[in-house]
8-oxo-dGTP diphosphatase
Amino acid sequence: MKEFNLEQYLPHLSIDCVIFGYEGKELKILISKSKFGDNLWALPGGYIKKTESIDNAASRILFERTDLKNIYLEQFRVFGSETRIIQSSFNETMRAGYRQYDSNRFTDEVISWLTDRFVCIGYYALVDIQKVTTQTGEFDELLEWRNIHDLPVMMHDHNDIVLEALTALRLNLDSKLIGFNLLPEVFTMREIQELYEAVYERSFAINNFQKKILDLKVLERLEKKFTGAQNKAPYLYRFAK
Amino acid sequence: MKEFNLEQYLPHLSIDCVIFGYEGKELKILISKSKFGDNLWALPGGYIKKTESIDNAASRILFERTDLKNIYLEQFRVFGSETRIIQSSFNETMRAGYRQYDSNRFTDEVISWLTDRFVCIGYYALVDIQKVTTQTGEFDELLEWRNIHDLPVMMHDHNDIVLEALTALRLNLDSKLIGFNLLPEVFTMREIQELYEAVYERSFAINNFQKKILDLKVLERLEKKFTGAQNKAPYLYRFAK
């Protein structure tokens, strides 16, 4: 394999993505098991090409793992401690993993570059899990959807990055609704309430919730859902165009 | 003057600060007239030392210009277009300015570094203008407080950075109130309303506003303000400890 081309990337700057998906009433994120260490987990991430914007780099990194384009993606925080990566307990494992993997691709210079200080731009994305076709990137052994309450200890500060992403997702969730890719095309009031309950990890009173959501004036009411019992069937909604 | 020490900084990564102050019912920001070009204005900014966190770099850059420590400071957005700086119409002016200024300090290598692509982390700060002692940094000819509606065209994307900072400041202003350094120690309800009106650029109905602010339960009511007419004097408030 040919050498990892350092020259094409900005040094010291990385992107990590918290990819939220919603399935079976659970809020999940996509995590990566690294090729470069045993039981080493991480957020899907990557570097920024000198020729691409940071937003395009994040979209590319996301596309490489999910095969999806045009996903709702938002920068939420920069992680820039002076000890990031260089004082991480995972750093030595990673160096050893790179060395063992392919010495043509990961030369000493490349390994130094990869394990030097990095300032990480955190992005979160919202996807419909059904539409995702996961595919491993260069650094992934495998990718896996995990409930946000069932995450392994991940490398460096990646668990903290998830918590910050969740805080950012919760902040003004209402105003992000339309950008969401978390719900199917049409959904019931109950389904949108379940989504809110999964994101905020609490229950909402049904009447108050319905009023609050309808007051946002972003939903369009369609026909009733076919259930066989027309009088009790719930209405279907979609986001107004 | 000795050479600008490139080795101490992370390349391609800068910080720009939107320093909001509030005075005479006006929301203002501190801007810098650059040494390196005629009528060239910019946000106060700088670079990140390899030995400091990004938050500490921002605090240092702010301290260097205002002589203030422990200021409310928040990252709000990263500006990372692939053409930032390198395709800026101000880039040639700046190169010429550096060249002319001091060729010992700004060698060709330093000038290339300074005018290469930069990803900029935007921070905003909230300060009490009365407490600020402005002092010029290495890149500033002078610093000036300007009403946010009376800003010159600034270099690169700095005017856009101000707009984004204002959007971030407005988002959840209520929850940022306590962190504020914008108001004096004690203030009247009218003063806090005037601050809100300056930030949001609109008026608020006095009764609704008072109820909304008191409902936040962050204020402590003190004695009445001494005005000579005790019966009409407004109450003073401060943030509850």
